[in-house]
Amino acid sequence: MKRRICILVQAGIALRLYSAAAGVAQQVTLDPGRMARVGSVDERFQSYNVEMVEVTGGRFWKPYASAAESAPPHPGLTAPGGIDPSLYQYRPPIDLGNARLRKLAAALGPAYIRVSGTWANSAYFQDSGSPAPATPPQGFGSVLTRAEWKGVVDFARAAHAQIVTSFAISAGTRDAAGVWTPAQAQAFLRYTKSIGGSIAAAEFMNEPTFAAMGGAPKDYSAADYARDFDVFHKFIRRAAPQMIVLGPGGIGEGTALVSGGTMRTVASADILAATGPVFDAFSYHSYGAVSARCGRAGMTATTTEDAALSADWLQRSGKMEAYYAALRDRFEPGKPLWNTETGQAACGGDRWASTFLDTFRYLNQLGTLARSGVQVQMHNTLNASDYGLLDETTYEPRPDYWAALLWHRLMGATVLDPAAGQVANLYVYAHCLRGVPGGVAVLAINADRAVTQTLQVPRGAYRSTLTAAHLADARMMLNGTVLALGADDALPPLDGVKVDADHVDLAPESITFLAFPHVENSSCR
Fold first, then answer.
1. 215 near 122, Cβ under 8 Å?
2. What is the set of domains in the chain, with CATH numbers?
3. pTM of the full predicted structure?
């Protein structure tokens, strides 16, 4: 049997690692054959974003290692309001036909590809075969051509992905009274259908909680959103009745994301109260902090490498989920919960977002949110800036990509309770093993910097352990071998190593997937 088997354990519980008196690691016993089902996730649970600004070309967060010029090539390409322009650099439109990019994205399929972001709020769709003009039409910040959008549709098809997006809401979409009109959205949907594409789901706009930053009219309010959304919703029900309407897509709540900043925000609770229960699924965005870039811009809600393995940092995504889940239960009870944008830190990620150090957050967040019932998580981004799964220049996989691939191959859609006790710095999650009836996969994250933990397990498991020579290393090892692409971009073998003992030691600062193909769990048949 091909051992594509890893362990992810989904429980989101912090387990107490030391005995208080002696500082001795405790042993945790797992019984995968008896783990109970606690829920399920969408088969496209692990998904990703490609920013609209990548598709159109424009200024996006400048990678820390880049010395490229940050100024735009012409005055028509703008950046979101209120942000220091030096934090951005111009990038030409992404080549979505690149063979390596397509191959690596396809390995994560089926998935959703969300093409949205702040820049989508002011992107003009040019419904003709002409090239983009030097300057966008008045009221818009960039231009999306037919050729560029066709590239997205073709890429999604090649990557086994369904498209999620949002619509332009800037001044150019509005009538004389300032009310949103569907003319641009109608042209966009009509062209998508004409080339054999479809939009699986969409938010009306990107992040209405930061409406002004995203190009909405000055002093845009929850009442304004409700008025515009009513026009949008009626239009969508006629033009694309099968599309999942997501919303509201708020961000920056449940944690102090912009503490120290001066940006005016619109509360998600106010938006939901104004719209009523109108969304097909409740969406939100989450970042535990802003990156050092936005720290330079005066926002104090930053984080550090030293805190990257702390319980506070690793559990922060769960706190944000709980905040938005409570809003969902209050205003949209029973609706599915989607996290449509997330990453190491807002504003492009920190320097260590591209290293093994962030893999602890990435996998723990997947485990935590799946255990809480979130149906979809979309990582920002696939390949742009420091938080991309892939290097934006070479498309070489970063540690989070390899982690995503292991999760994809091992963690099925059924979520189990690992029934582990509480031990500090140990995080354990469990799912049914993908593609193996009765099998179970466990993810065990030892975030302790000094103590080895021990799992007591049945014999016959297959172990896949992720480590790095240094936590801030851009290279990651699987069972001691550095992960890298082979000839013609072949993915390396990701087979687990058979465990013949009845226990597994988890080294400090390591992540282990365990696959149990023969435990005959009745919830996994």
1. yes
2. 9-36+417-524 (2.60.40.1180), 46-413 (3.20.20.80)
3. 0.93
